[in-house]
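TA notes. Do not distribute before section.
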Amino acid sequence: VRVYTVAQESKYVVVFNVPCFASESDLINIAKPFGEIVFCEKVSHLFDHEEYTDVFRFKFIHIDSAREMKRKCDETSLLGSILHVQYSPEAESLAETKEKFMKRIDKVNELVLQYQENRERALRYKIPTEPLKLQSVASCPPKSSPMTHKSSTNDEISK
């Protein structure tokens, strides 16, 4: 399991190991189900890649779309080649990065507020109970056993 920070995730996704005979429309058809695509461009000149393969970059409108594509398309096959999908935060502008962090701050604040409201609601409806009163062991009366064992003496045994 790999965990990504807010800084590492991005609306931009890079797809490696795309066969050179695959068309851009093939990739767009793979990415469309995950959300609205802003653009798809060939960026093989920017990255090291294997011979006879290309590299493409997508930009999605929502980061959730990029997250879903990364999760579902990484290590999938396209025309006999295994695709490798990764985020591309280096393609973001400073304004896009700032927007991403502000949205995350808003989301975290919303979750904290929701947690606090749920907690307060649960405490409001909790049935009040009296605290338990503990007694010391010395003050407890001894329990009488239902079967008392009478010690036998030598006289009783001889009878």
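Switch to the second chain here.
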Amino acid sequence: MQFQSTVLAALAAYVTGAELSATRGDFQQVFANAVNGDTITLEAGEYATSEPIVLDKKLIIKGDGALFVVSDLAAPVFAFGNMEGYSSTLNGLSVGTPGAEACDLAEPYALRANFSIEITGATVANNKVNLQTDVGVWHNERKLNDFYFADCHYAVDHPAKMSGGRGAMGRVHTCSSDEDDLRLAVTHEGNAVTNLLIQIDTVRNVAATINAKYKSADIGAAINLVDVGFFDGWNHSKIRLEIHLPAPFTIINTEGVVGRVEESSESEVSALSSYIVDASCNEQAIGDGCIQNVVFDIIACDLIGEYSLDKLMIACQETDENDNPAKCPNIDSAPATVQFFIDTNSFCEVEEFELDALFDLSIEVYDSEAYDSPETVFDLGSMSYRQITIDTSASGVSLYNAEVIYVKRTTDGDCSSFEGYLGDVSDGNPDFTQTYDPAAQTISMPHQVRAQMACATSDRTGNAITMNYTVLDDYDDGSARRSRSLDGMTSVMRARLR
């Protein structure tokens, strides 16, 4: 052992606790079992440490003659796990390392402080999240006095390494006057965790007209949330309606059905989904506002239309503001109905324009469902496999969905006997199957080469068949509105008829 250091670190005021003793055989367990305020006295001798001792409580550690042996001084002996641990006191301990020469070490490194930062506030500005916190407590004036490595005294042999010195703050007082102290060699490693709630205005571009029908009380209502694609990132949306009633009235049913008013008849309502109502209000003074949210979902990209919340059961609250039974006026026993019209400003309307700037479209015909071996010639009765690729890597737009909505077949043969093949497939077709893979951004379509598809006639041995596909893309280009766009793709194959 060619050099060692004696550490005297007064890190905190004394806190009365138990007096504990530790030996080289049980010191790890003693540290683990100690509680805030305990004093641990280490017996003299060498203590081998393969990993830092974590101080996560406020302790006083004494160890005249106790030497912690480490492989090099880049290996921490003590790691302060929290603020309580950082307030511990280390008195008389030594750190030693074999094979080094006295006074050659550039900077002592025997301690490390890991800590969590308490977030005091957060703001969002200029596309950045700014966190307010105070980490000054972890960088205050901790110092070591008379730090030695064998016969090397830092205050004498390395004065340039000393962190003391005189400094003045204005003309009021001296803020530092320790010329002979070495700042405690501690590496500070911090991390911060915060729960960040960002609320995005999803109602600004939504206009709603609400008509609440109830004889016994005035009902106020407003849409306070339209979260497009909340459930699936595409067209399954969440809507929240806020209903205001004057106390002592409150809605008492917890769920019901929301429907869409058909244009053909204002009285005809088709059920869309169920709704859920907040818990009933209670203990309010007469005239106070009872506010309850009604949440429901709609599966549709275009939310424009008239809706109806039926069978909202209204009754009186159980108790008033003084916890007495509420005085209940005569009320209409019939349920209330809230009808409302949503206008989402056509954020789902189809726009027809050239998509070359947004999408790199390509199509290929393959010989198997593996879609890995291109082929253009097929026998009658065999299967052909087409795949459309919608590449958005160049434009960076987010593609939510893509689907073929129209298929047109042309050929150099005679198709007069086989008209009406496929066509509009937007609502499904038993003779047409397509699968969209969002990861690969591909639409895969198996086709059987049947007589109707190939326009097979007895006078020809083969036909060249051209398939024209109209693709509907549902995408987000970062403009705060979802868009849908059309484009066409064409593939050519040849069918051998006999």
